[in-house]
Each structure stands twice: as structure tokens, then as C-alpha cells.
Amino acid sequence: MIPIKMLLEKGAVYKKLSPGETIFQCGTRAVFYHQLVSGRIRWCNVLDDGKEVLHSVVEPNEAFGELPLFDGDAYAATAIADTPATVIKIGLTNFRQILEENPDLHFAFTKSVVQKLRFKFFLTELLANNDPVYIVSQLITYFNLHHQFICEECRRLMLTRQQLANMIGFRVETVIRAIRQMEKDDRLDIIKGKVFVPADGL
């Protein structure tokens, strides 16, 4: 998103994270811009019963938790390290200065936020359908078309069944059944428990 060198020149610092470590919590005040350098972060809401509503899985070079940097409100979700990870963060004032001095970055940042909003519209429309197989297949198709969460070389789906379930509000058993049905229909392959998506889509 923002070049690492530019962030460091403005005073950014690195932070290493262990799996399960929280970067920020829903409802807290935002004072930093965060960008993932390595590893994976999940951005989610944790419900009272411990279940998670997964909004996105953050990959290297992506920003996360951006909304309150613009509207001054609290974080809308919690960010948790999925794997050992490194993030780079910079104070809000310096972050805004970078955008003011670099209109092209400001535009790219706005485009990124819009893309995430479009995904939310996509999910809302998708979940109006009652067929789990259709919902799961369309979600995987979306990721395939947008080159997200599917290995370009081996075609393995890089999200777990639990993560898919948390993303669409299903029980994991429902997602497992849907994926098995897609395998029976020869739409994807399951090899040693891993899901592989054809290069030409489902």
C-alpha cells in the first residue's frame, strides 16, 4: 500500500506479533495506521459467545483498520495475528501528512477502501440466497476472479473451512458439506483435506 521506506522516513516503527496476539480491539480509539509486512492478520468481530464474524484476512502489504483514520470514530473490528507476523505502524498525524503530500497514494488508498466496501455489498447480496452450496461457490469464485486467497501456482484455497464459515455466518459443518458437494459435482478437488480450485474457476 504505502512504500515501507516512506513510512520509515516519517517515523514508522515495526512490531512483531505472535499467533493469537491482538493488534487493536473493536471500540478502542485509533491512533496509528497499520500495514502488514509479513504473516497474516484476521480482522473480525468477536461475539459474546466467542464466535467470530470474519471481515477479512489481511495479507502482506495491505492496510487494515483504516476507517477510523478518516472519520475519527473507534475501531469497528478487532485485528488478531493468525500467524507469526510483522506490522509497521505510524501515528495518525504523520499518516495524514503522507496522504496530503502524495495525492496518488491518497487515490490508491481510497480505491482500496472502495474495493472492501464493494465486497461487503457482494456478501450482503449473496447471503440473501438460501443455498449454502451456491453461497460458498460464489464466494470462492469471487476470490478466484480477484486473485485473493488462492495460490496462483498450486491453486490451493488458502482459507480454512472455519474462516469461510466465519465470513458468511455459517456453521463450519455447513461449509464442509457444501465443499464436499462441489467435489462430487467435479467443481473442485479435495486432496489430503486441502481444497484446490481449477484455474478456469468453479
UniProtKB/TrEMBL annotation:
Keyword Ion transport: no
Example GO molecular function: DNA binding
Pfam families reported for this sequence: cNMP_binding (PF00027), HTH_Crp_2 (PF13545)
Signal peptide: none
Alphabetically ordered keywords of this record: DNA-binding, Kinase, Transcription, Transcription regulation, Transferase
CDD domains: CAP_ED
Assigned GO CC terms: cytosol
Protein name: cAMP-binding domain of CRP or a regulatory subunit of cAMP-dependent protein kinases
Species of the source: Sphingobacterium psychroaquaticum
